[in-house]
Amino acid sequence: MSASGDGGQDGFALAEVLVAFAILALVSIAMIRAFAGTTQTFGATAAREAELSLAQHVLEGARAESSASAGRQEGESGDLTWWRKTTPADGAGLAPPPRTPRLFRVEVGVSRKGETKSRPPLLTSFILARSADE
Fold first, then answer.
1. How many Cβ atoms sit within 10 Å of the Cβ of residue 80?
2. Can you state the percent helix, strand and coil of the chain, rounding each to 5?
3. CA gyration radius for the chain?
4. Would you give the end-to-end CA distance of the chain in angstroms?
5. What pTM does this model have?
6. Cross-referenced InterPro entries, in alphabetical order (predicted)?
7. Coil, strand, or helix at residue 125?
């Protein structure tokens, strides 16, 4: 029996505190990992939104042009590079009448500068424009 006469309860309280701290440490580690994963997800989402915004801007630029021609254009914006591929959408193999708008397929892709892996188009749309060849 201890000198204070409490039957050894001081040691039991210390063991409870140590167990509580161990549980607190485990819960804290789990929460830190969850927050880190959430932060990483937010970063990836923000990067994807920036890519989509740029692709939409490039596509709107193609729509705003008065004429279109088949080909590929490339450019840079900040830490992103973009490409735009325009191809005529032929209708049943028939040539359109002269000086009339044609249907063009426009594909836009965006990637990070220095990225070597080829990505598929991010946005694809059709535009009606006069052919620049006429």
1. 18
2. 40, 30, 30
3. 31
4. 106
5. 0.68
6. N_methyl_site (IPR012902)
7. strand
